[in-house]
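Lab meeting tomorrow. Look over both lines:
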Amino acid sequence: MVRCETIACPVCGGSHFTRLFEKHGEPFVRCRDCALVLINPRPVATDVLNSYDAAYTGHYLRKAAKKRTRCRRAVRRIQRHYVTSGRWLDVGCSAGFVVEAAAQAGFDAFGVDVEAAAIDHARRVLGLRQVACGTLQAQAYPAQYFDVISLYDVLEHVPDLHPFLAEVERLLAPAGVIEIRTPDVGHWRVPRRLERWPEIKPSEHLYYFDRRTLARLLAGHGLVVVSRRLAFKPGLKIYVRRAG
């Protein structure tokens, strides 16, 4: 039996939603106050986390060569424009490709992921040692410890956004930068029939941000978007620093 929970809008705290459609038995709704799209009610948080297993990692590894190339490019962009060295934390590091690329570029690189098979691959195949299995909050890293924090295709999966983002903000060094990538429901290439968008993934993608809703969510944790990369595919690619 699927266990479900109803939540308030994590962006604005609203409790009024417009029902959009249902997919695989899960209702997709839009917040009437801020326009965030989300699954609500949704599977309970523990069930969401338990859905990431070895099969999920296996699917990720099928395009390993291309992913590793993209990771090296991402690290070079950070070095060119924001931070040249220091500590890098990749949250949702999966098999460790970003951690590997950051380490090769001279960073003291760390990673964390909830999926044990992914962390095993990072340790056993890539030889990475500073990767941990579990949630970000459970790692108890020191405050202001990381100069770069990458969240690539992570936010849309996180059941409890506010404790998670509070921890990200706590860990960020004063002059550090966060790079976030997440699907963009406001992108011009998203189909009018939203249920036809490939990023609509029940029990997996819990939220669908646009520029406004994501910026508002981050502002609530003292974080501000400082730049945004152009995305031909429907995705937000933003760089974030501490406000002020």
Q: What stands out?
A: The chain has seven helices and 13 strands. The mean pLDDT is 93.
